Amino acid sequence: MSKYVAGPEIERLIQLLARVPGLGPRSARRAALQLIKKKETLLQPLSQAMQVAIDAVQICSICSNIDTVNPCLICKDERRDSSILIVVEDVSDLWALERARVMRTYYHVLGGRFSPLDGVGPNNLNIKKLLDRLTDSSVKELILAINATVEGQTIAHYITNLLVNFDVKVSRLARGIPIGGELDYFDDGTLAAALLART
């Protein structure tokens, strides 16, 4: 029984889609099929939007956010609280915090995750840029909104040590039980963090 192989153009589309985080080979194949089936209403507009993004997207020179203007719209917003700066690992983390609409403040994107095994150390992240921002600003509190992984905690500790001589309060996101969570389902580390960070 012969295996169906699509033409090289379709295979290339599938291979590229499979590189998108969250899409494996099967999901990429399904996505490619949907795009092809809806060529006029989905594939062509997507292709045009991607070309526009290639031409328009920039990295903010202040916070390293991704936008179509530089500085980004967040950094340009003078209504935000300039006394607080939230540090995140990646732009996706910034966007997640903005969606929560809890604080209207400014951000600093480190530009990746600390990962010595992948050759990403402190010098590969936007830490020097962060220190420069703190030197020339009115920031009173730095919130380290870093992921609760071993690597995340390592870089948070590293940044905290660098800020010893700065007149800035350093805080971290609370860890523990999410809203709606049942205690019996959580691991010991999560329970311990929740008890230590109790309010």
Helix and strand arrangement:
Elements: H1 8-18, H2 25-37, H3 39-56, E1 58-59, E2 66-67, H4 73-76, E3 81-88, H5 91-100, E4 105-109, H6 127-135, E5 141-145, H7 150-162, E6 169-172, H8 188-196
Parallel strand pairs: 3-4, 3-5, 5-6
Antiparallel strand pairs: 1-2
Helix pairs in contact: 1-2
Describe the structure.
This protein has eight helices and six strands; from the N terminus they run αααββαβαβαβαβα. The chain is α/β, with parallel strands linked by helices and 199 residues long. Helix 1 (8-18) packs across helix 2.
Taken from the alpha-carbon principal axes, the silhouette is globular
Average of pLDDT: 88
Low-confidence runs (pLDDT<50, min 5 residues)?
none
- Major beta-sheet overview: 4 strands, parallel
Structural class: alpha/beta
Strand order of the largest sheet: 4-3-5-6
Portion in strands = 5-15%
Tell me the quaternary state.
single chain
Order of helices and strands: HHHEEHEHEHEHEH
Terminal residue distance: 64 Å
The overall strand count is: 6
Assign a percent range to the helix content.
40-55%
Counting DSSP H or I runs of 4 or more residues, the number of helices is 8
Radius of gyration: 21 Å
Put the structure in a nutshell.
The protein is an alpha/beta fold and 199 residues long. 44% of the residues lie in helices and 13% in strands. The termini are far apart.
